[in-house]
Design brief:
This protein is of the alpha/beta class. The protein has ten helices and 16 strands. It folds into two domains: about 200 residues, Quinone Oxidoreductase, Chain A, domain 1; about 140 residues, 3-Layer(aba) Sandwich (Rossmann fold), CATH 3.40.50.720. The protein is about 25% helix and about 25% strand. Strand 1 and strand 2 form a beta hairpin. It is globular, with a radius of gyration of 20 Å. The N and C termini lie close together (about 10 Å). Bound molecules: nicotinamide-adenine-dinucleotide, (2~{S})-2-methylpentanedioic acid and zinc ion (ZN) (2 copies). The site of one zinc ion has 8 residues, from helix 2.
């Protein structure tokens, strides 16, 4: 079968031919219907050798959906032919965090050698994908997998961050969204769908800011040194009750710090390597910050239901597997509008 793999440090993704995998005991094989590209894939592929921990070759793709095609020994209660999305942050299944569905915060996964598909385990950017346990499958029913697959990360990750900050997103509040890419354009829609907050979106290009408006941002601001002052102007000097930074680089965290309101909150979702100096007289009184990771199983069900209701939709640029390298190039250059999705 064809697969998109990262095979050599610094060389980028390649489309290669590999064996079709067989499901082991308890596992499920999916025939992949869609796999999304995430900017974290470039974070992984840009790492120097001494920091690279994901194994080589690595079949990419931590956003996956597929049709159940073959059941491993002992798997019951799931039908061959059903359409599912894959919950990616696989945990041990037994600890406190896992027992409440927060496998994204399982503290045993690493020591047990459990890694998400595409971030250690073979990922979804292939014709077939092995899923380690049926609890990691969320039924899609008649939802289009290409339109839905990116909810497993570009939907779930913002949803998890927004739910945590929801008590501050009361009527009259302001949310600032920095970075209106794959995650950010879904994030704007989720804030609009589950809160009454006013949304101010920041990005670098006119195209991304136009997308922000299209998906529901009330105001748009060009990201850069003047952005904080503009946000202050738009909020009568008060600033943002919550900042969602979907970039996480030093300039955007500096903006987040400059716009967060007294008793406000910053969710650092992007993994751009920036740091947020926090302390008395450094951030406003009462302000808090958090760097969330992915989301919980029940939150994935909720965000898929939100899409089913029509309140949230992913803007998709679709590619065949042979065009995966070009798709990764577009993601690298910042020219994907919404999310790039591979259909093997
Ligand atoms: P993306 O490339 O689709 O979108 C990034 C957006 O940020 C683009 O629209 C780009 O124009 C914009 N941007 C870049 N620099 C900017 C700046 N200085 N100011 C304003 N906007 C700027 O990326 P994505 O797939 O949406 O991922 C976003 C970030 O979230 C990445 O760092 C990714 O690795 C990370 N991520 C984190 C988690 C988590 O669990 N915390 C999960 C998924 C992705
Ligand atoms: O899901 C993602 O995109 C992030 C959180 C992956 C980061 C990583 O390297 O595990
Ligand atoms: Zn991701
Ligand atoms: Zn666990």
């Amino acid at each position: 079968m064809k697969a998109v793999q990262y095979r050599e440090i610094g060389k980028g993704p390649e489309v290669v031919e590999v064996d079709v995998p067989e499901p082991g005991p308890g596992q499920i094989r999916l025939k992949v219907t869609a796999a999304g590209l995430c900017h974290s894939d470039w974070f992984v592929m840009d790492l120097p050798e001494e920091q690279y921990i994901y194994g080589l070759p690595l079949t990419l793709g931590h956003e996956g959906a597929g049709i159940v095609d073959k059941l491993g020994e002992g798997v019951e209660g799931i039908e061959v032919g059903g359409s599912y999305a894959v919950y990616g942050p696989w945990g041990c299944g037994l600890c406190h965090a896992c027992s409440r569905g927060a496998e994204n915060y399982c503290s045993h996964a690493a020591e047990l050698g459990i890694a998400p598909p595409g971030l250690g385990a073979p990922g979804a950017m292939a014709e077939y994908l092995i899923v380690d346990d049926k609890r990691h499958l969320i039924p899609l029913g008649d939802l289009d997998p290409v339109e839905t697959v990116s909810l497993t990360d570009a939907g779930l990750t913002p949803y998890h961050a927004i739910k945590n900050a929801l008590p501050k997103l009361v009527p009259g509040s302001t949310a600032v969204v920095i970075g209106v890419g794959g995650l950010g354009h879904v994030g704007v829609q989720i804030i609009r769908a589950i809160s009454q907050a006013r949304v101010i979106a920041l990005d670098l290009s006119d195209e991304k800011l136009a997308l922000a408006r299209e998906v529901g941002a009330h105001d748009i601001v060009v990201s850069g040194p003047d952005a904080a002052e503009r946000v202050r102007d738009l909020t009568n000097g008060l600033g943002a009750d919550v900042v969602f930074d979907f970039v996480g680089a030093q300039p955007t965290l500096d903006t987040a710090r400059a716009v967060v309101a007294v008793d406000g909150h910053i969710e650092i979702v992007g993994i751009g390597g920036g740091l947020l100096p926090t302390g008395f007289f450094s951030t406003p009184f009462g302000a808090s910050a958090r760097a969330p990771y992915w989301g919980t199983r029940s939150e994935l069900m909720e965000v898929i239901d939100l899409a089913r209701s029509g309140a949230v939709s992913v803007h998709v640029e679709q590619f065949g597997i042979d065009d995966a390298v070009a798709a990764y190039g577009k993601l690298h250059d910042g020219t994907v509008r919404g999310r790039a999705v591979i259909v093997p």
